[in-house]
Amino acid sequence: MEDDVFCKIIRGELPSTxxxxxxxxxxxxxxxxxxxxxxxxxxxKHVLDIMEADDEMISYIFDVIRKVAxxxxxxxxxxxxxxxxxxNGGQAVKHLHFHILGGEKLPTRSQKKEH
Length: 115
Ligand code: 5GP
Known about the structure:
By secondary structure, the protein is an alpha+beta fold. It has helices at 5-10, 55-71, 74-77, 86-89, and strands at 18-21, 25-29, 37-43, 80-82, 98-102.
């Protein structure tokens, strides 16, 4: 049994605000949003990151993301999907998840600090 926060949310041991749920995936509001809309699409099966996930799982999660984006008005104006992997990627929760960001114009690379 895994002990990361998303496994606990999936098991109902921690609260969350659910946007979507089926037998394989949940989409919840991020607890610390960095955009007007900031959701997390999370597989119920514990997988560390995209490097460990199989194509079927990734494909399924992206189908769900497309569906929730269409049903919640994100698709029209656009949105962003990101996934952080490991130490350099800044992955805090060791359970695969895709950030869904939108609801406003998001900063682009040209608006960020160069190095
Ligand atoms: P990471 O940095 O691993 O890509 O992102 C983890 C995300 O999970 C962060 O955006 C953080 O705000 C979110 N998060 C962490 N703990 C919780 C929680 O208990 N509930 C919810 N809804 N989001 C969480």
